[in-house]
């Protein structure tokens, strides 16, 4: 009699895999990446390239060092390097960009077991590490289409910019603070491809705009500056570090939006997106536990 093996669910496989999902994220980010390079020039291209190359190399060397099968083909290292690069100013020394990617891959991702096991978004955590370690370099920007260096004349630093410039990203900032239009288009692409669902980014944006309005700040400026679009669409929606439930995603997004505005309005630093996402990453297991549905046919807590 043939022996039958019984395994746990899922029993039906689908066409989606990690490589396909990461490739979709890269495709969604390409328009904004190209736009940032056009705005800020060759330095922006070098920064993004070094960030991606360092992430890939760090993953390869770590896997070789611990005799682990390389995970480069899943493209997760490329996405991490790309996201970090878009969160950096084009004036940043290249060795700092390389260091940031190494921190993201080795310290935040691989030391916790690799993809699927990290407790926080690697790119966000690495950006915060760079901000804390090199605050001047991380807050020195250039005016688009010029070589003029500025440190405070940014939208969040008190600079006065027209709505059109905020929407299209024609202002000093990080490479990824380019066109909100293109970032939104990338988000729509990811929703159509079912890589993400709209609840989390919409909750992020709505709560941030609502609290900004209640505090007397400009809600439009809040949405289109400081990497909020990049963070809400591409970083807060990370599968591993955000809740899987619909209610959990909404709670996570609202928390990110509120914390972002509180930091911007009351804190000593104008930017709050990175810190907000990291803080909510830490709360993700608790949000997931509180919003998880009970299995059908059970009562109370499972023992």
What's the total helix number? 13
Helix and strand composition category = mainly alpha
Helix content: 55-70%
Q: Which CATH-level-2 architecture?
A: Orthogonal Bundle
Enumerate the strands of the largest sheet in spatial order, edge to edge or round the barrel. Answer: 1-2
Beta-strand fraction estimate: under 5%
Would you mind describing this structure in some detail?
The protein has 303 residues and is mostly helical. The chain has one domain: Ammonium transporter fold (Orthogonal Bundle), CATH 1.10.3430. It contains 13 helices and two strands; from the N terminus they run ααααααββααααααα. Strands 1-2 form a two-stranded antiparallel ribbon. Helix 5 packs antiparallel against helix 13. The chain is globular, with a radius of gyration of 20 Å. About 2% of the residues have low confidence.
Question: How is the topology of this model organized?
Answer:
Layout: H1 18-40, H2 42-65, H3 76-86, H4 94-109, H5 122-133, H6 135-138, E1 141-142, E2 149-150, H7 163-168, H8 180-192, H9 199-214, H10 219-224, H11 228-235, H12 246-266, H13 273-291
Antiparallel strand pairs: 1-2
Helix pairs in contact: 1-2, 1-3, 1-8, 2-3, 2-4, 3-4, 3-5, 4-5, 5-13, 8-11, 9-11, 9-12, 12-13
